[in-house]
Amino acid sequence: MTIRPLALGDPQQIGRYRILGILGAGGMGRVLLGTGPDGRLVAVKQVHAHLLDEIEYRARFRREVTASTRVSGAFTAPVIDFDVDSATPWLASVFVVGVPLDTAVERHGPLPPAAVRMLAAGLASALHAIHQAALIHRDLKPANVLLLRRLRDAEVDHPWAVNGQIRAD
Prior knowledge:
This protein is 25% helix and 29% strand. The chain is α+β, with helices and mostly antiparallel strands. Strand 1 (13-14) and strand 2 (17-25) form a beta hairpin. The chain has helices at 55-68, 101-108, 113-132; strands at 13-14, 17-25, 29-35, 41-47, 79-83, 90-94, 99-100, 145-148, 151-152, 155-156, 163-166. Residues 151-164 have low confidence and may be disordered.
């Protein structure tokens, strides 16, 4: 996972979160690494500036943030804070350390069949939790699926093949 440094003009603070770096960007916003008052790391999604004046987009963001707070599942990163009325709307979720599925396959080759089955089960669970909150994941792709390391019997299994987390980019 690459964390890019902040550039001149990037926010140093969003809500209660001190911003540490840039995790990535998508069509609707960018994701920043932050730390809360308690020291916990968070992923802060901030809406792109060119979308700020679009009333329809702001309304959709508000609906999706509200629905996202109802998503709870073992394979989703929970939303823990947000401000949809801010000059630049944002939401914060638990920061998950992982490797995107596309990167893992690029580096290590195809996942073993057992790992694919476990990943499929995790993705199905995550999508079920998302759909239960009346949301549709509009950008499900390998780059938005994080693979986490898992320990079993004090040994590391296949390094990227176990718990799939869907990230919202």
